Amino acid sequence: MAEMADIGGxxxxxxxxxxxxxxxGLPTNxxxxxxxxxxxxxxxxxxxxLWMREPTxxxxxxxxxxxxxxxxxxxxxxxxxxxxxxQGGVISVPSEAVYxxxxxxxxxxxxxxxxxxxxLMDNQKFGISQFxxxxxxxxxxxxxxxxTIEALQTVQAARVHLAIPKNSVFLREQQxxxxxxxxxxxxxxxxxxxxxxxxxxxxxxxxxxxxxxNITVVDQExxxxxxxxxxxxxxxxxxxxxxxYIKEVERTYIKRIETILEPIFGKGNVRAEVTTELDLAQTxxxxxxxxxxxxxxxxxxxSQQLHESTDRDPLGPGGVPGALSNQxxxxxxxxxxxxxxxxxxxxxxxxxxxxxxxxxxxxxxxxxxxxxQHTKLPVGMxxxxxxxxxxxxxxxxxxxxxxxxxxxxxxxxTQINNLVKEAMGYNPAxxxxxxxxxxxxxxxxxxxxxxQQAIDYVSxxxxxxxxWGALLLVFLYILFGVVRPIVRDVINPxxxxxxxxxxxxxxGAEEETEPMDEQELQxxxxxxxxxxxxxxxxxxxxxxxQIIKEWISDE
Length: 555
What we know:
alpha+beta, 555 residues, three-stranded mixed β-sheet
């Protein structure tokens, strides 16, 4: 074993020495190309290592003013955090420290928003006039409103100007405040009517007595935005709030249908779409009905008047003056029973009675049976629902144990139809429609989840992968296109073919090569014999088997 190890070591040393001699014998241009290729590979490896060690920069703050930028960079220097400053007020720090740095700077109140807020009132001078105090207060409100509006995602910068009139003791001379808002939007972003009216209501709520109609909003191009249609009012057409409500109602119906069918067929085997027709009109009704009078015993008396009068003649009997008028009347033909001591026409006290008349008037007013009903119908009542449901084929197992998808039976479709109707609140009187279809879904299971993840990763990191791919191509080109051919020529020189070469050329080639030692010659001879034996066995296996048998029999 020791002899074999010595032989192997001598062979390696001989090959190394032979390779170095061949390297020294290369032409100058090949040597330079080899050295340049090796140097390029080393430079590429070192540059890649340094590039990987260099931190990945991430934006800490953008659109920072010069004053705030100076304070932020001073704070970063004190915290020993490296930073980069780009054009446009962009400050970048290493990606692993961006969130921690933001928290630390926020604790120091950095960056400060544009303008000044209520901190202007912290350092009030002693003896300041009322006018200056009012101006500072107005500036504070403007600054706070600007900061609040700049917190919106679509707004890059905002300026607020308030015009607050002086209060008057006369009600007729009082004037309402007005406000102007100038917005600078982020490039490529738009602002809709809902956001505009949200800003207007925000400013109106912050200033006492400021109505939203007195607020003017413009963008950086001078376009008047405050004239956009108010989504909260009921103008013609649907606003965004109504559209969102319709979508929410439809999503609710879809969720009900899929929730009741997915436990039966599995997740992803049911698809539903619902279209709803809603009544978004605001309707109020007032009706006044008069009914028949109630029974007398149950009627309610509203008012009652009772008038009774009696008239008596104070002069007594009258007639033509004379004897006949002063005489009492003759006795009655029919007997009249009178109280004792009385006569016809004579009272008990002996005086003659006088004629009298009485009158009674009674007026009763009863309450009228009246019903007043005021009805305010709710907004968003469902007028009609149309649903379409697609169910995948059901997975079944045959007698051989093989799984396959088969269509549903008519009984199963009827059951699904009944379930969906109950889930969606099907009402035929309302005009609802339902269509359930059983069809085979497209098989998308051939793509595993990891492939989709790989595709998402490549699409999200395309720039980084392109840079690494370019570096890899340069490295492979230098390695296999420049260095490898030269090293291959050094280690394995091209062999000279014996056919077609003259004797002097062979002798010259033999003179150029150095004489080999005994071990190398033995190794070459052994390798040649082994190759010859393999060739004989490959060409004539029977003869090789016969030779081996003879060797065994001789032994």
